[in-house]
Specification:
alpha/beta; 11-stranded mixed sheet; about 15% strand; globular
Amino acid sequence: MNIVTKRALKIGALALSATLAAATLTGCAKETTPTTGEATITVYSGRSEDLIADLLKDFTKETGIGVEVRYSDSASLAAQILEEGSNVQADVFFSQDAGALGAVAEAGAFKTINPDISNLVDAKYRSADNTWVGVSGRSRVFSYDPKQVSAAELPKSVFDLADARWKGKIGIAPTNASFQSAVTAMRVLKGDDATAAWLKAMKTNAVLFEKNGQILEAVETGQIQAGLINHYYWYERAAEVGEDKMTSKMAWFQAGDAGNLINVAGIGVLSDKPEAQTFAKWLLSETAQTYFVEKTAEYSLTGIPAQGNLPALKDLPAAKIDLSALAPLAKTLELIRDAGLTD
């Protein structure tokens, strides 16, 4: 069986996943005018234009390589890559999360990333076969109002939020891709039955939001006592208003808990263009890693210190999980829907 046939067999499953993931779609795919350069690469980007447009300009300025971008959500772009098969129109897939990278890697669509690139990142933040590599990290956290939740009341596990004590007091965003990746991590570490039970409890206990930022706003204003978000939303708000003006605080669950997922945005190379490898390596350069730390409050994966009072990446009580295992999204979305958290 050749690789094209193998890839075709994968399309149905991923297309189903992408269809189910439609609730996470933040906008239709769109093309942008490329940055100009002697050579040009095409990037399918699950990271938003607002987030990385300036970064891509810096890349062209430093390397002379132009960039043409197609923006959409990562799951839809992953499905498109597999549909295009051997005629894929992109040189690089820049994904918002490891799950979409894992799905494309499983289908055999990626080229091998040069070891001088992948070895810049700890093995836990890249694929074992060097088909994709993380470029920035984010941690799931428990955001809470210390006026309403004492230190003694902080949950030790994300599964503790199924307790009746949290009814109407915890915020989640079930249609958000980060929440869905976190639920997939729960499935991998604790199984489908335990995760399904937790999701059903969330139907009773949780206040539902569309986005992480809305959850944080609700905690800040006292609408809810706590919420599950990505860490950088707290730091983005703190940068705007000042850390001393923040009502909420952040906490992590006990070491290794499924709720402490560290996910990555990452990159996979789709063509033999050397400029694609250059782009991958540049995203791990000091320029790009500093951008992620200072502009997006994410974690550098090459050791540049984190922003402000954010704990160092190595010190986080992270869930121990192979990020490639986040690829099977369809079952996660099925459980979320069956629990009544989405339509």
